[in-house]
Amino acid sequence: MTTTKTPSSTSATRTGSRFQWRVIDIVVASVIGVASGLIFVVWNVASSPVTAPLEALLPGLQALGGGFWLFAGVLTALVIRKPGAALYGEMVAASVSALIGNQWGPLTLVSGFTQGLGAEIVFAIFLYANWRVSGAVLAGAGAGLAMAITDLLLWYPGAALPFVVIYTIAAIIGGMLIAGLLSWLATRGLAATGALNRFGAGREIAKRV
């Protein structure tokens, strides 16, 4: 007895395969997350001296630098292109930062979760099909908005409205430029070297060459 696959069943199979995580996806996502976490550790120390002039210029503007804590999720998603990749990458990076030690302690994991979720939601809205610069930038904006909401609740409760507005806008812009645009450029750079040939990002670049 033979079974004939209908177009709908074939489409469902392809979608399931496209969304299913492979072992290599887990390994590479973990490597990206750990490497990003080490960058987080450096930025944990460097962020205050770098962003202090921005805060002095306009309170709330320091959130621009928050983009350096948001890129892990976006970068992981752009490489892996699977549901949950943004949340996974950001959580691994946040875990590394918390384990090594920082001034925020376990609350780092709360920030990692919300920031990763902010990017994840944007990729999900596009049904995990928009990996262009527009999708990356919007995902960075989503992570930035999530960061602003979390920070304002945890660290700036009762802040004045002007500060809330400036902080939120700055966080979104930082997310768009650093987590979004720079992660997209980094992915293209890695793909061009052939390092991502086993991933959709690498095959996409190869087709254009």
From TrEMBL:
It comes from the Bacteria. Pfam families: ABC_cobalt. The lineage of its organism: Bacteria, Bacillati, Actinomycetota, Actinomycetes, Micrococcales. The keyword 4Fe-4S does not apply. The chain crosses the membrane at residues 21-43, 63-80, 87-104, 110-129, 136-158, 164-186. Keywords: Membrane, Transmembrane, Transmembrane helix. This is Energy-coupling factor transport system substrate-specific component.
